[in-house]
Write a structure and sequence with these properties.
Largest sheet: 7 strands, mixed
Number of helices: 5
Strand content: 15-25%
CATH superfamily: Class I glutamine amidotransferase (GATase) domain
Oligomer: single chain
Shape: globular
Helix content: 10-25%
Radius of gyration: 18 Å
CATH architecture: 3-Layer(aba) Sandwich
Length: 264
C-alpha cells in the first residue's frame, strides 16, 4: 500500500472519530425524483443512471463510497423536495433532470420546488447542480432552479469528444484550484457552459474559456454547479488514459462539499 493511500486512510479514520465525538454525521442526499430513468432488464423495469448503489459505469457507487470514507451517510429523495423532507440533509445533489426521451412522464422542476430548495440553501444547505449537454438534460425547468442563484445552464456544447481516440478534447488542466487542490488534470466531455453572476466564483473552464463549473453563496448556504454529471463510475474507475485524475477530483470535491456544511 502506498504512503499516500495510508495517509488518506488515516485521515478518513480521524474524520470519522471527530464526527463521532462531536455528535454529528453529515447526510448527503441524492435526488431520485427529477432524475428517474428506467430500462428493461429481463423484461422487468429497473431504475438506473446516477444511483448510489449502481456499480455499473452509469452509477455513482464510487463517489458514494468516497463520501462514506469521509464520514458522511448517504440518502435519497424520491419525492419533490420540501423544507420538511430536506430537514437533516446537509448536501443535496440534483443530477441530470429527465427529458421525455429518458422518462415519458418526467418530474419537471417547478417554481414551488425551486422556492423550497432556495429556502433550504439560504438556511445553510449545500446544493450541487449537475447538468449535461442540452440533448441529454431538461434545461428549461432546471434553469428555473439555477436562476434562483443567478446561474444559467446554456444550450451550447463544450469539450466535445467524438470517441476514445480523442480523449484530449475533454482534457482540462488544473492549477492552484480552490476546490480541486490535489488534482492537476481532469476529463469532462460534452459539457454545457454556465452563465454566472458577478458574485459567483468560476471553478473550471473549458478549452475555449467558457465557465463549466462555478460556486455561488446564497444566504448561509452555497451552490456548486457543473455542466455535466462527470463523476459517475465510468470516469472515476480507471477507464481514462493515464494522467487523468477524475478520482482525485471526486475526493477533492467531496472534501470541499462536506467542509461547507454548517454544523448546528
Amino acid at each position: 500500500m502506498s504512503y499516500r493511500r495510508i495517509t488518506n486512510n488515516i485521515s478518513a479514520v480521524l474524520l470519522l472519530l471527530i464526527c463521532s465525538v462531536k455528535g454529528y454525521t453529515q447526510k448527503v442526499t441524492l435526488d431520485y425524483y427529477f432524475n428517474h430513468e428506467v430500462h428493461q432488464v429481463n423484461g422487468t423495469a429497473q431504475r438506473f443512471h446516477y444511483l448510489w448503489d449502481e456499480t455499473a459505469n452509469s452509477g455513482f457507487s464510487i463517489w458514494g463510497d468516497i463520501f462514506k470514507t469521509h464520514g458522511a451517510i448517504l440518502d435519497t429523495l424520491t419525492q419533490a423536495p420540501t423544507l420538511k423532507n430536506l430537514q437533516g440533509t446537509d448536501v443535496y445533489i440534483i443530477v441530470d433532470p429527465d427529458t421525455k426521451k429518458e422518462n415519458p412522464n418526467p418530474n419537471y422542476i417547478t417554481d414551488k420546488d425551486a422556492g423550497q430548495i432556495a429556502q433550504w440553501v439560504k438556511a445553510g444547505g449545500v446544493l450541487v447542480l449537475m447538468a449535461n449537454d442540452s440533448a441529454n438534460v431538461e434545461l428549461r425547468h432546471f434553469n428555473m432552479l439555477a436562476g434562483r442563484f443567478g446561474l444559467h445552464f446554456n444550450t451550447d456544447l463544450q469539450n466535445h469528444v467524438v470517441d476514445d481516440a480523442h480523449f484530449s478534447d475533454g482534457a482540462i488542466e488544473i492549477d492552484n484550484n480552490p476546490i480541486f487542490k490535489t488534482t492537476h488534470k481532469v476529463f469532462l466531455k460534452d459539457v454545457c457552459s454556465i452563465g454566472i453572476p458577478a458574485k459567483a466564483i468560476p471553478v473550471l473552464k473549458s478549452a475555449t474559456g467558457a465557465v463549466i463549473a462555478a460556486t455561488v453563496k446564497y444566504g448561509k448556504g452555497i451552490v456548486f454547479a457543473v455542466g455535466d454529471p462527470w463523476l459517475y463510475n465510468e470516469y472515476v474507475n480507471g477507464r481514462l488514459p493515464a494522467g487523468y485524475e477524475n478520482d482525485k477530483a471526486a475526493a477533492d470535491l467531496t472534501k470541499w462539499l462536506l467542509a461547507q456544511v454548517k454544523h448546528k
